[in-house]
Specification:
heterotrimer, A alpha+beta, B mainly alpha, C mainly alpha, A: Immunoglobulin-like, 2 domains, 5-stranded mixed beta sheet, 6 helices, C: Cytochrome C Oxidase, Chain A, 60% helix, respiratory chain (chain C), Cyt_c_Oxase_su1_BS (chain C), membrane (chain C)
Chain lengths: 263, 237, 589
């Protein structure tokens, strides 16, 4: 009896916490509203299932609690009931999975017009490289990393000479323009994560990973490392600021190229 | 991970086939037996089933090693290393050991203890020769400047031969135990079981070695990576 | 070595399964220490696992001290913090849960429930425990080597795990890997026993479909563990090579402090594939025994047959098989080929279906039952709540695109603690309350049990339910310091403090449980042989606690399935499995 009441309280309390607490997604600042929508849909379906199951258990606990002379009903199985429940579950799963897969298809497919920004992680610092006037990033390799070339950019590759290099500074992005983040690491695994953008991806030394995003709201956001990368993991922060195109162009003009830095 | 998935798929098929014969569809609540109405099929000795399960575990270990090897070999900078030629005579030794034990297995069903004893001795000698040969293969590689950390292909060669070699050494203990039983004139039933277990184990070691050789020599490498690509779309790895 | 003689009785034909030779103990050492009796080994396993689990519990307090009150406890620096979370995670998952479910409950229950005298390879079974103990000692030793235990996170991802900016890279990581290798070797010996005992040593009449679900769960989990642990074994050996011999299996070209390392050409992703090829089945290696045990607890204490037994068995087998093809859902944002996301999201969500069926069948077992609120039942009911909660949050993380913002955040931490921390631990408690009377012959104290239950259940729910929302905000996991993140509101700091306080309370409540275990051993109420009036074989032993060889002179014969509760027309509300049918009852289809 007492337990039945507790069960009801758990459902009511969890729902109240969900709707009334101040803790929720940070305000969205990118095109990935779909991810939020899929999450909310998942909350709705799973919330209903959780409440239904626990409330039903509460009902059973109250209705079928042991009393003198009571005997349980003998019923080994009920094919039809189990069949219906299975089908219903399958429908719920499909309802969550299908939109998820469609959104994922957009997530992995970078639009052609996206501009590239290379992000380089190292313990425990973010650096960036932007393509220069030629619009392409030069080759890079961890074997080339040294004290005078901390990002391992190839000095031989002419395409790399005009690349803009930002070491440990702030990154600016223009609003409403898709960006392809190319992610590299010079030491261990890191993960480039801006909660307001919703997207993230690990960075692996020796390979280049990617994701894309279109910033939709101006402002300054914190970059967090989301893959354990050693003692300083939680201090590996940076900032990205989304600005208008004019401000962006102005900022871009003030950055140093790889050629400037190496001379 | 294609190699391990293929391996597990084979195991799953075997398990499915076995389960299908265990009456998984019956409704157990409908059949309560009366006293004295229960028949029971005789069973194989537990040790044989135990060995089978153990070999599945060992197989899974090697399938995973091969998976890792294939995943690594698919990467662009892979440099294969020619196997030292001695692995081929080594393979012959292992083959002789396995054949000798099969010979013992046949002998023991006819209660021919002398034959079993000779075969086990031959198998032991051949197995020792195999191990010595494998050690020599390492020496050859090292003499050629290929140490365990020289390049990934060599690292895998050392790792896989070491893993296989340790299992072969384990098999030597089984052989010694079998020989001891024959020598002491243990119960025939026990000797027979012992010989059968040893023969099965060594056959499996031969099988694993042949697969490893095919992979390491690169013959299977290409074939497997193609299979992997077909199976998992560009290779889950 | 003395054979227990078998004498055929007149009522039943002689057993055709071979009587096994049981090693007989001579003296105290071989009875209680180097024992080959599965029941003693089970208690040894359980005691060791609970002891090392207590260490992990203390570690969790230390973690929560830092998270709830950052900067207050200055002896916790970032290095120590990462060592705490690593050891907490690894101990809980491998050395407590796996060892307790399979080594503890598996050893105790399998032979008794299938009507065997003991495990089929008692010597290997004993070795299994001692190697496990050695693994635990090696693990604990890493706290005392220079540099301390590894702080690489329980996933031990290279390259970071063996590089110098990670705590414990001198000795700690080596001891961790060696300990894991030992654990796997020891487990394999035990696992062979559990598997072959179920396959070969079932007594007459015990068909597979008459086995209690506990045995099914442990059996399938053991097979999975036998096939999945080699992946961890291979990964650990390869990482040891990388660390000690300078190979580059997992180590790409990389730079540390501006210095080129000698590594080159390895693949960190390869490690992740191997790790999760073990790691995901591991979740079910813990979950399936819990599923099985909870089915039996609910059925027994609701006095009702488990609803849909066949579906339950099939679901266990299907979940076991499917769990081998979902591993990469831990790697959606690992940088692997993103197109794998489609496949793994689909397989992952498919697993939800058989899992949901199991939940429905537990609930439907309660429906129209005769529910007794005994301590085991309370824990089983609490398991349903936490497992449903944690299972449903798994649907967020399995659905690849929803996982993108949530992976590597506190949401993940909350999810897996709810589903494979709290839920299985509740089952373990329930199971201990249920079988303690068989192990010791005495009941655990009811009042202490209820206190322990309510504090543990409600406290754990209050810890982990709100934690999801911290992750939803975007707070990453494994953060030594998260209160200074820009978007974190002041209120989140208060929430973290609340969670920590709950964690301390729940932790301290476990002292009551341990006290109850020790106190009742001597002073508990006498239990009799079958206090729960249960049907399965372990309650039908001639002695309680069961003697050496379990069954006295003659093996039991099984005439019916394990769930004949409240059969219409029967005199009692349960019919033991070894009671022959006199009149065939009318069973509704």
């Amino acid at each position: 009896m007492f337990f039945a009441i507790v069960m009801v309280l758990i459902v009511v309390g969890s729902a109240a916490f969900h709707f009334l607490s101040p803790w929720w997604f940070t305000p969205l600042a990118s095109n990935w509203g779909y991810i939020d929508d899929t999450t909310v849909l998942t909350f709705a379906i799973t919330g209903v299932v959780f409440s239904a199951v626990v409330l039903f258990v509460a009902y059973c606990l109250w209705r079928f609690r042991h009393r003198e002379g009571q005997k349980a009903h003998y019923e080994p199985e009920n094919k039809r009931l189990e069949g219906w429940l299975t089908a219903l579950t399958a429908v719920g799963v499909i309802a969550m999975l299908t939109p998820g897969l469609f959104v994922w298809a957009t997530f992995v497919d970078v639009p052609d017009e996206a501009s590239s920004v290379e992000v380089i992680g190292q313990q425990w610092l973010w650096s960036y490289r932007l393509p220069g006037a030629d619009g392409t990033l030069g080759a890079a390799d961890n074997r080339l990393v040294g004290f005078d070339n901390t990002l391992g950019i190839s000095p031989e590759d002419p395409a790399g000479q005009d690349d803009l290099v930002i070491e440990g500074g702030e990154l600016l992005l223009p609003i409403d323009r898709p960006v392809r983040f190319l992610l590299r690491s010079v030491d261990v695994l890191h993960d480039f994560y801006v909660p307001e953008f919703r997207a993230k991806m690990d960075m692996i030394p020796g390979s280049v990973t990617y994701f894309w995003v279109t910033p939709t709201k101006t402002g300054t956001y914190e970059i967090l490392c989301a893959e354990l990368c050693g003692t300083g993991h939680s201090y590996m922060r940076g900032t990205v600021t989304v600005v208008t195109q004019e401000e962006y162009d102005e900022w871009l003009a003030g950055q140093m190229t790889f050629a400037d830095l190496s001379t | 991970m294609s190699a391990i998935l293929v391996f597990l798929a084979v195991l799953a098929l075997a398990a499915g086939w076995w389960l299908a014969r265990q009456g998984l569809m019956v409704k157990p609540w409908l059949h309560a037996d009366a006293a004295g109405a229960i028949a029971h099929a005789p069973r194989q000795p537990a040790a044989q089933i135990g060995l089978g399960v153990f070999l599945a575990v060992v197989g899974s270990l090697f399938a995973l090693l091969i998976s890792a090897y294939v995943l690594r070999a698919e990467m662009g900078d892979w440099q294969a290393v020619a196997l030292p030629a001695i692995v081929w005579p080594n393979t012959l030794c292992l083959l002789i050991a396995s054949l000798a034990l099969e010979w013992a297995r046949v002998g023991i069903t006819q209660d021919d203890l002398a034959r079993a004893r000779t075969s086990v001795l031959v198998a032991s000698a051949a197995a020792l020769a195999f191990l010595a040969g494998q050690l020599f293969a390492w020496r050859l590689l090292a003499a050629g400047g290929y140490f365990v950390n020289s390049n990934p292909a060599v690292s895998f060669f050392y790792l896989m031969t070491a893993a296989h070699g340790l299992h072969v050494i384990g098999g030597m203990f089984a052989l010694a135990r079998t020989f001891e039983r024959i020598w002491n004139g243990d119960k025939t039933q026990r000797i027979r079981l012992s010989v059968e277990l040893a023969a099965t184990y060594w056959l499996f070691m031969l099988f694993v070695w042949v697969i490893l050789l095919l992979v390491l020599s690169g013959w299977a490498g290409e074939f497997l990576s193609i299979c992997g690509q077909i199976l998992s779309g560009s290779g889950i790895g | 070595m003395v054979d227990i003689p078998h004498e055929a009785s007149e009522s039943a034909p002689p057993a055709e399964i071979e009587e096994m030779e049981l090693p007989h103990a001579h003296g105290w050492w071989s009875t209680y220490v180097f024992s080959q009796d599965a029941k003693v080994i089970a208690v040894q396993y359980a005691a060791t696992a609970l002891a090392i689990g207590a260490v992990a519990l203390v570690l969790s307090w230390l973690i929560r001290m830092q998270l709830g009150f950052p900067g207050v406890f200055t002896f916790i620096d970032a290095e120590r913090y990462y060592q705490f979370i690593t050891m907490h995670g690894m101990i809980m998952v491998v050395y407590l849960l796996t060892a307790l479910f399979l080594g503890g409950f598996g050893n105790y229950l399998i032979p008794l429930m299938v009507g065997a005298r003991d495990m089929v390879f008692p010597y290997a079974n004993m070795l299994s425990y001692w190697i496990y103990l050695l693994a635990v000692i090696v693990l604990v030793a890493s706290f005392f080597v220079p540099g301390g235990p590894t702080g690489a996170g329980w996933t031990l991802y290279p390259p970071q795990a063996i590089l110098s900016n990670t705590p414990g890279q001198q000795g700690g990581i080596v001891l961790m890997l060696v300990s894991l290798i030992l654990f796997i070797a020891g487990f394999t010996m035990g696992g062979l026993n559990y598997t072959v005992t179920v396959l070969q040593a079932r007594t007459r009449g015990m068909t597979l479909m008459r086995m209690p679900l506990t045995v099914w769960g442990i059996f399938v989990a053991t097979i999975m563990a036998l096939l999945a642990f080699p992946a961890l074994f291979v990964a650990a050996v390869m990482m040891l090579f990388d660390k000690l011999l300078g190979t580059s299996f997992f180590m790409p070209t990389l730079v540390e402090f501006g210095e080129q390392m000698s590594y080159g050409g390895g693949s960190p992703i390869l490690f992740q594939h191997l790790f999760w090829f073990f790691g995901h089945p591991e979740v079910y290696i813990v979950a399936l025994p819990a599923f099985g045990i909870v089915s039996d607890l609910i059925s027994t204490h609701a006095r009702r047959n488990i609803f849909g037994y066949r579906m339950m068995v099939w679901a266990i087998v299907i979940i076991g098989a499917l769990s081998f093809i979902v591993w990469a859902h831990h790697m959606y944002v690992s940088g692997m080929n993103p197109y794998f996301g489609f496949f793994f999201a689909t397989t992952t969500l498919i697993i939800a279906v058989p899992t949901a069926i199991k939940v429905y069948n537990w609930v439907l077992t309660l429906w129209r039952g005769d529910i007794h609120f005994t301590p085991p039942m309370l824990f089983a009911l609490a398991f349903i709540v936490t497992f449903v909660n944690g299972g449903l949050s798994g649907l967020f993380l399995g659905n690849v695109v929803v996982d993108v913002p949530l992976s590597d955040t506190m949401f993940v931490v909350a999810h897996f603690h709810m589903v494979m921390g709290v839920a299985p631990i509740l089952v373990i408690f329930g199971a201990i309350y249920h079988w303690y009377p068989k192990v010791t012959g005495r009941m655990l104290d009811d009042t202490m049990a209820k206190f322990h239950f309510w504090v543990t259940f409600l406290g754990a729910y209050l810890i982990f339910f709100p934690m999801h929302y911290i992750g939803l905000m975007g707070a990453p996991r494994r953060y030594f310091e998260s209160s200074d993140i820009m978007f974190m509101p002041e209120s989140a700091i208060g929430l973290n403090a609340f969670i920590s306080i709950m964690a301390f309370i729940v932790g301290f409540a476990q002292i009551v449980f341990v006290f109850n275990l020790l106190w009742s051993w001597k002073h508990g109420k006498d239990a009799g042989s079958n206090p729960w009036r249960a049907t399965s074989l372990e309650w039908q032993t001639p002695q309680t606690p069961p003697g050496h060889g379990n069954w006295g002179k003659e093996l039991p014969v099984v005439y019916r399935w394990a769930y004949d509760y409240s059969v219409p027309g029967a005199a009692e509300d349960f019919i033991p499995q070894n009671q022959p049918a006199t009149v065939t009852h009318e069973a509704p289809a």
